[in-house]
Amino acid sequence: QQEKEELQGKLKLRKHLSQTAGKSEATRAPSKNIDLEMKQLQCKVKNSNTETTKQSTTIKSLKNQVQEKEERIRELQAKISQLERDLTMKRHLIEDLRSRLKANQENEKTSNETLESLERKVKALAEDKKASIDSLKQRFNVAMKEKSQYEQMYHKAKDELEKKDLKLTKLESKMIEAECAVTDLETAASQQLHGLAKQSAQALETLQKELLLASDKVEEFKTFVKTLTRELHHSIQGLRTKIKLAKKMGGTKACKKGLSQECLQWAASILNVSTTDLYEILQEGDDEETARTKMEFEKDKEWLQHIQKLLEVQFPFASYLMDAVLEKLNEKMNLVEEYSSLMKHTL
């Protein structure tokens, strides 16, 4: 295009020069050199026109190629953006895989440690298994030896058993004979037992009679002891009342000469009370005497309960009963002595 423009500029100059030269020298004929140059320039212009047409065709083709390449570039840019997105996704995946790889490596370390411990345990178990197998082999050998010994013993025992079977058949025959003898003995023994049973029944009847008599004697003895203790208790209470009345009436002279058991009983019968009640009436106002009588009454009550317990306990109880009765008899003797001394002083 530049060459075309230059040539067109040169043609215009030439035309301008030719016009100016034609005006100045109208008569002058155009020179040969200018024509030649004009022809050359026209040829060049033609050539340049052809070249321009060629260049325009090439430009069009290049424009088409540029458009195709731009479309290709757009496609490639779209692919690049897609690839960039894929690349970011792959980066995230790689980071995730790295974190997983680290976790797997840690797990692998722990699993390796557990594998090592398990291998050690497996080795220990294999050693223990070998030792147990060796011990079992030894036991098996010992058991085989014992089996052979037991087989020998079995054969010996079998021979002995056959011998003993023969002896047993002989013994069974003897046993049958012995059973016959035993039946005979049992019949004789049963007859003797019937006789003994009759004798034992008679003896039991006699023993029952003796037991009844003994129980009756025991009951009589208990009633005797109870009546004896009751009489002792009443006599001691009577002596106590006499002593207390003698002490009470000892200060009065009017009753000194005529005081006796008959008078005491006569006074109690008139008042329709017992001698102990009469004594309590006479003792009204004396606190010490009442306390003393209460103590004596409680002691007498305890003594009676003690006698009852002694009669109810199992044998032997005679010595304890004797001690209790002697204690009360001694008390009675002391009361009699006290009463006699009081009566002497009053008389």
TrEMBL record:
Gene name tied to this protein: Cntln_0
InterPro entries membership: CNTLN
Region feature Disordered, mapped onto this chain: 1-34
Residues in coiled coil: 59-188
Name by which UniProt lists this protein: CNTLN protein
GO BP, one annotated term: centriole-centriole cohesion
Keywords assigned: Coiled coil
PANTHER family named in the record: CENTLEIN
Record has Coiled coil as a keyword: yes
